[in-house]
Amino acid sequence: MTGIVSDSTAVQYHIGVSRAMLRGARYVLLPGDPDRVEPIASCLDRATELARHREYRSALGYVDDTPVLVMSTGIGSPSTGIAVEELARLGVTHFLRLGTTGAIQPHIALGDLIISEGAVRLEGTSGHYAPVEYPAVASLSLTQKLVEAALHHNFSYQTGICCSSDSFWPGQERYDSFSGYVQRRFQGSLDEWQHLGVLNFEMETSALFTIARTFGLHAASLCGVIALRTQSESVQEGVYAQVKERLALVARETVKRHAALGAR
Ligand SMILES: O=P(O)(O)O[C@H]1O[C@H](CO)[C@@H](O)[C@H]1O
Ligand SMILES: O=c1cc[nH]c(=O)[nH]1
Fold this sequence. Notes:
The protein has helices at residues 19-22, 37-41, 77-89, 140-152, 189-195, 205-214, 240-259; strands spanning 27-30, 45-53, 56-63, 66-71, 94-103, 113-122, 136-137, 157-165, 200-202, 218-228.
């Protein structure tokens, strides 16, 4: 039986790109927001748009001679899991999430970058790939290059554990939802994660780390802080432009340094 999804030479069913379109790219930069693809791609050389399909918008560019795909994942772990599946099939081996996030530690500032060493799996998708005991951990070599790149640009950054939630409101203990209700299991959870040293909330990193690991592939996560959850439930949209620029600059430098290792 042949199906479009399982054929590695075909245009992939959800993401709308094929192996030939990737020009051998092994690196992918993964923002959640489709509108972040173009500004990130504009920090690469010779960038061109590839496709727009559902939440997946893609562009191909270069860091010197290294081809790099930029593709949005949409919001959340299910669509991120589909992106990893289909990109892995096309030969992508290194996945770098470029996201926005809400910080839950008081020493973190708006615009800071957070590099995740691991992630709390507060989502369902990764459980379809590995049991709950399996850790969601980052690729060491890719993460080391992220740290070097943030230092190179002199951007303030933190490293640690993030919490990846399946919901933006109750799972991140926000009370400004439509109903205002947060289930008992999440009441007090922000405080608890904070005491356990978790740095931030977002929605994709744990699925990305888990799935990439189970495939024997490499993933890292860089997020820019747009909400200070110890002060407010709101996101501060004024910092979004600065965060976007920082993510793109650090990503380019990370690929440059990692590609120079010549690792497969
Ligand atoms: O800015 P992105 O990459 O989408 O990331 C964060 O923003 C979205 C929620 O607003 C979630 O996807 C969360 O993980
Ligand atoms: O607080 C935040 C900000 C961005 N993304 C999230 O998931 N949470």
